[in-house]
UniProtKB/TrEMBL annotation:
Keywords carried by this UniProt record: Oxidoreductase
PROSITE patterns according to UniProt: ADH_SHORT
InterPro entries (alphabetical): NAD(P)-bd_dom_sf, Sc_DH/Rdtase_CS, SDR_fam
Family the entry assigns: Belongs to the short-chain dehydrogenases/reductases (SDR) family.
CDD domains reported in the protein's UniProt record: SDR_c (cd05233)
Protein name listed in UniProt: Oxidoreductase
Pfam families: adh_short_C2 (PF13561)
A GO molecular-function descriptor: oxidoreductase activity, acting on the CH-OH group of donors, NAD or NADP as acceptor
Domain of life: Bacteria
Source organism: Streptomyces olivochromogenes
Keyword Cytoplasm applies: no
Keyword Oxidoreductase: yes
């Protein structure tokens, strides 16, 4: 398996300086990496996660590094908790400039064997969670005159794989949610874009890897489906999220950005 080329991180330049950012699923993996990148570039970050402990851990790491962050337990499948999350950010910092809808679950299986509770949980978190996030933050962004919403879908929102029928359906919904929000609010200065990561080295993929022969087997054969020949790293996705959150992406809305090591180019 190829390993990522290691390059020194560029010095912070304040790409989201003083922007108030809310990141869901910030307790681990891609979400944690996104929270760190936004904070490194000057953002004030509300780190939300189902686990209060991991949310606070991410926030503590950011604070220890000189950034500004708070951690909060949020179940994104609850509209009331999502509303309260956004209101907490507004109460703390006065507004919300950036929302990253990252929280998600991947509960693989053959469709005819998937029970109702797994279907419900997948749709509640991956679809309703992002809908609730957008709905909660948009009124504040309208008042402020704009903002950036970054949804995290998956390469499986564009192409599917074995055992991922329900997951793929939920991630396809994320792509279309993004396009709808982008069109509805483009004249009001709200941008909405979606990232579709390929196979990234995070625990969310472990259950799927088990069904494919184990994580070691997947990584040994990864160039058969991900041409770059290695899994992505969370920070590589976070770098793209930072760009979309920043004013550098001011001409982008409704864009579907595949960050997948060439997977969907085949």
């Amino acid at each position: 398996m190829a390993t990522p080329t290691t390059t020194p991180s560029a010095p912070p330049t304040g790409r989201v300086a003083d922007k108030v950012c809310v990141v869901t699923g910030a307790g681990s993996g891609i979400g944690r990496a996104i929270a760190h990148r936004l904070a490194e570039e000057g953002g004030k970050v509300l780190c939300a996660d189902l686990s209060e402990n991991t949310a606070r851990e991410t926030a503590a790491e950011i604070t220890a590094a000189g950034g500004v962050a708070e951690g909060r337990a949020v179940d994104v499948s609850s509209s009331a908790e999502v509303d309260a999350m956004v209101e907490a950010a507004v109460a703390r910092w006065g507004r919300v400039d950036v929302l990253v809808n990252n929280a998600g679950v991947n509960l693989p299986g053959l469709l005819h064997e998937v029970p109702d509770d797994i279907i419900d949980k997948t749709l509640d978190v991956n679809v309703k969670g992002q809908l609730y996030g957008c709905r909660a933050v948009i009124p504040h962004m309208l008042t402020a005159g704009g903002g950036s919403i970054v949804n995290i879908s998956s390469v499986n929102g564009l192409v599917s794989e074995p055992f991922l029928t329900v997951y793929s359906a939920s991630k396809g919904a994320s792509v279309m949610l993004t396009k709808g929000v982008a069109l509805d609010y483009v004249k009001q200065g709200i941008r909405c874009n979606v990232i579709c990561p390929g196979w990234v080295d995070t625990p969310i993929n472990h259950a799927h890897a088990k069904l494919l022969g184990g994580l070691e087997h997947v990584y040994d054969t990864i160039d058969s489906f991900q041409p770059i020949g290695r899994p992505g790293q969370p920070r590589e996705i976070a770098n793209v999220a930072l760009f979309l959150a920043s004013d550098e992406a001011s001409f982008m809305t409704g864009s579907v950005v595949a960050v997948d090591g060439g997977m969907t180019s085949q």
